[in-house]
Design a protein that fits this description.
- Its EC number is 1.13.11.5.
- Keywords: Dioxygenase, Iron, Metal-binding, Oxidoreductase, Phenylalanine catabolism, Tyrosine catabolism.
- It comes from Staphylotrichum tortipilum.
- This protein is mainly beta.
- It folds into two domains: 215 residues, Jelly Rolls (Sandwich); 142 residues, Jelly Rolls (Sandwich).
- Helices cover 4% and strands 34% of the residues.
- It has three helices and 30 strands.
- Strands 7-30-9-10-17-12-15-22 form an eight-stranded antiparallel β-sheet.
- It is globular, with a radius of gyration of 23 Å.
Length: 435
C-alpha cells in the first residue's frame, strides 16, 4: 500500500485490510526509506519498535510495527500501583449454567474505572488464557490520561453508545454493531461523544486473533479481510508541563500509573503489521445449510484464536428441510459466553436473554432451546424464514473452563436465579414405548 500523506489529518480516515502491511504518515517524508532506524530520523523524530510477537516468529505470524514519534515511550517517571482499581482475587469454576440481566450503565465512571471483570482463566504472566469484562462508562477519560493493557489484546464489542478511541497510531470511531481490537501494549484514551457507553470485552492473553481458515468454503465468505479498518497517523505536538500526563497500564490484572510531561499520542508516522483495527459486523457474509440440520456455530466465526473464537449470530435465512432449526440440546468441550448487542436472539424466547445481558455455559454444561422455543420449532411450518432481523448476538467460545469473579456472581446483582427453572425444567416428557 502506498504511503498516505495527510498534512492536516482528518480524524476518521482508515486503512483497509486485516493483518496486512500498512504505512501511514501525517507529515510527508516521515517514514524513512531503507533502514527502519536511521541515524537521524526525519523531522527530528525518534524511532521506536512495537513487537507483538517474538522476533523469530515465522514470517507469516510475525507482527511488528515501527513508529516515528516526537518523544519515546520510555520517557516517564516510575510506575506505581494504582489504588483506585480492584483486581479480582479469585475466580469460581462452577458447572452451573448462568444468565445475567442487562448490566447497568455507570454515568460517573470513565473507561478506566468502568471496567469490571466478569470471568477468566489462565494468567497473563504466562500468556495463557483470557479474561472477560463488562465495560460501562458515562464520562470521557480526562484529557491528559491514557490507558493500555500489557496483559493482552482487547476485543471490544460495543452494545450502547459510541467510543471515540484515540490510539498512538491514530483514531477509531466504534459504534454498536461494530467491534474494535486494541493489541497488547498500545496506548489509547476513550472519549464518549454520544453519552454513556456499555459493552463487552474479551481480553486474549495468548497470541492474537486471526481470520479463520475458509477450507472448503473457498476464497470468499465470513469476514473479508478488506472490511477491517486500521487508523491513519495523527499526532499531538503540544508541549506539556512536567508530570501533567498520567498513563495507566494493566499489568497482571492490576492497574499501575506513571506520570510524564509529554503526550503518548505523538506518533507522526508508522508502518508495519501490529496495530489496532475495527470491523462492522454488518459486513459479515453468513454461511448456512441449504438442505438439513442446524450447522455448528463455527460457521459464524469472525476472528479465531486457539484460546477463544469470536462468533456472531447476525440476521440470516433458515431454509433447512425436515430439521430442527434452532441449536439442538448439547454439551460441549468448549465454554460459551454469549452477549446480545441488540434485538432478540432467535434461540431463546420469553425475554430472559436481553440486550446488554449475557449467559455462560461452561465446559460440558448442558444447554439449548428453552421449552417454549422447542415447542414452537418442533411444530413450525418449515418454509424459508429470516431470523434475527434487527438483532445481533455474539459468543466468546473457548476450549478453556472459564471462572467467574465475585463481581460476576454477586456484586453486580444481575445473575438470574431461575434460569434453569424457567428454561429447561418445564420441558415435558413425550416418549412413548412402541407397542
Amino acid at each position: 500500500m502506498p504511503v498516505t500523506n495527510f498534512t492536516t489529518p482528518e480524524k476518521y480516515q482508515y486503512l483497509n485490510g486485516f493483518q496486512s502491511y500498512h504505512e501511514t504518515e501525517a507529515i510527508p517524508d516521515t517514514l524513512p526509506i531503507g533502514a527502519n532506524s536511521p541515524q537521524k530520523p526525519n523531522h527530528g523524530l525518534y524511532a521506536e519498535k512495537l513487537s507483538g510477537t517474538a522476533f523469530t516468529a515465522p514470517r507469516s505470524e510475525n507482527l511488528q510495527t515501527w513508529v516515528y514519534r516526537i518523544l519515546p515511550s520510555a520517557a516517564h517517571l516510575p510506575f506505581e500501583k494504582y489504588s483506585g482499581y480492584e483486581a479480582p482475587t479469585t475466580v469460581h469454576q462452577i458447572p452451573q449454567q448462568l444468565r445475567w440481566d442487562p448490566f447497568d450503565l455507570d454515568e460517573k465512571a470513565d473507561w478506566v474505572h468502568g471496567l469490571k471483570q466478569l470471568g477468566g482463566v489462565g494468567s497473563p504472566t504466562t500468556k495463557t488464557g483470557l479474561a472477560i469484562f463488562i465495560f460501562a462508562a458515562g464520562v470521557s477519560m480526562p484529557a491528559q490520561q491514557a490507558f493500555s493493557s500489557a496483559d493482552g489484546d482487547f476485543l471490544v464489542v460495543v452494545q450502547h453508545g459510541v467510543l471515540d478511541i484515540q490510539t498512538e497510531l491514530g483514531n477509531l470511531l466504534v459504534r454498536p454493531n461494530e467491534i474494535a481490537v486494541i493489541p497488547r501494549g498500545i496506548k489509547y484514551r476513550v472519549d464518549l461523544p454520544a453519552g454513556p457507553v456499555r459493552g463487552y470485552i474479551l481480553e486474549l492473553f495468548s497470541g492474537h486473533f486471526k481470520l479463520p481458515e475458509l477450507g472448503p468454503i473457498g476464497s470468499n465468505g465470513l469476514a473479508n479481510a478488506r472490511d477491517f479498518q486500521a487508523p491513519v497517523a495523527a499526532f499531538d505536538d503540544k508541549e506539556y508541563a512536567p508530570g501533567s500526563w498520567i498513563v495507566f497500564t494493566k499489568y497482571d490484572g492490576h492497574l499501575f500509573s506513571a506520570t510524564q510531561g509529554h503526550t503518548p499520542f505523538d506518533v507522526v508516522g508508522w508502518h508495519g503489521l501490529y496495530y489496532p483495527y475495527k470491523y462492522d459486523l454488518g459486513r459479515f457474509n453468513t454461511m448456512g445449510t441449504t438442505s438439513f440440520d442446524h450447522p455448528d456455530p463455527s460457521i459464524y466465526t469472525v476472528l479465531a484464536n486457539p484460546s477463544a473464537d469470536f462468533v456472531i449470530f447476525p440476521p440470516r435465512w433458515l431454509v433447512g428441510e425436515d430439521t430442527f432449526r434452532p441449536p439442538w440440546y448439547h454439551r460441549n468441550t468448549m465454554s460459551e459466553f454469549m452477549g446480545l448487542v441488540m434485538g432478540e436472539y432467535d434461540a431463546k424466547s420469553g425475554g430472559g436473554f436481553r440486550a446488554a445481558g449475557a449467559s455462560l455455559h461452561n465446559v460440558m454444561s448442558a444447554h439449548g432451546p428453552d421449552a417454549d422455543t422447542h415447542t414452537k420449532a418442533s411444530n413450525a411450518d418449515l418454509v424459508p424464514t429470516k431470523v434475527g432481523e434487527g438483532s445481533m448476538a455474539f459468543m466468546f467460545e473457548s476450549p478453556l473452563m472459564i471462572g467467574v469473579t465475585d463481581w460476576g456472581l454477586e456484586t453486580c446483582r444481575k445473575v438470574q436465579p431461575e434460569y434453569n427453572a424457567d428454561s429447561w425444567v418445564p420441558l415435558k416428557r413425550h416418549f412413548r414405548r412402541p407397542e
